[in-house]
Amino acid sequence: VQDLRRELKRFGGELPPLRLLDVGCGSGVIGLSLAKEFPHAEIVGIDSSEIAVELSTENAQLVQNTEHESNATPRYQALHVPASHYTNVDVDVDADAHLPNDTSKERYRFGFHHVISNPPYIPPSDMKSLSPDVLNHEDHNALCGGVSADGLDIVREIVARLPEWTASIPQVNADAHTGIRNDGIAGADTARIRANSYCYMEVDESHPALIKSWLDGTNEGLGVRFVESRKDISGRDRFVKLLIEHKRPRV
Q: Domain holding 105: CATH number?
């Protein structure tokens, strides 16, 4: 989370309104931590587990109750979204696609600046080697990455949806030479970063090389590029950073 906070600040994390999508939010720990760091951000967590969404919502309420100032309350919302709504690339999604909001029955707009995800990614052959505390008490659907031997089924589906989730992001208009934005804030970097989005995802240590090979090879038209992998505190490659490319507007 610390690395992610630094990354978001580098890429415009302090420029409101920042919108983040947390895919597979679970208990909401990551999304709520970022909401505390970026109080003006709008963060939406989605999960296919109703229990996880209930827990995430309860945790968000606990965070809200500990805030001393109501105007500092993080803008966080957890939604129950069936897996087929966000991991099935065959679902028809038009330019005005929205995430369902099961609490208000309204439709939730896309256009997230960045996506974070800690999806199910454990290869099926590794499930039996998990510790009894995990294997006997955790939801297997939140752990196992699918039926494929590499455990990348869900990861691949999520990656394929990234361009849709981050589409229609409002662009900052800036002078190509001075880098002055139309709202008066200087910085050529700002004009550049608003044209693209990033996904930060936790994966199995065997996955970074596989994801890089997949994106560099057969899926050049997907609009997603592998940027880098990062190690956890044990020195294992467990996190990937992906670039979601969008057509750059004229300035």
A: 3.40.50.150
